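Quick start: read one record
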Amino acid sequence: MKYLKIGGLIVILAGLTGCSDDVASVSLGLFTTKDVVVNSQQDPLVTGVTCHISHVEADLDFSDPSDMSIACRQTGPITPEQLQAIDRSKSGEVVFKSSKSILFKSLKVRRIYDAKAHTLLYLSYSTKESSGSHHHALSTVPLYNTQAWQWAQGQE
């Protein structure tokens, strides 16, 4: 009976892991509960952009490490209508957010439009200082060869 309960728990946990929307999960070793997790996120307004964000998840800790990496690429059309709908201020807008601890730390991704270079910037950052730093990473998506290129040039 004891083995049936343990076996049932393993099946349930394996099922929950399979329900995740993560693209990848790589263990950091045999004797650790930390994994590098890669999530795929489509920009909610500029739907032709997909970002892959990697970060460490520590299953048995109250707070995940702040380190992260981001890579964003054009994966579909980017239109003038999409760019007209975004916040084009210097601080841009938060497009993704994920909790990293029970103590108000989160990972955020902010979209910023660089009008001079006709490029979308995606800045990922931790909202809480860790080891003397607010960890961050940057990825860019140029508008060259998109439907929005002519519109972007006319905004100068």
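DSSP finds three helices and eight strands in the chain.
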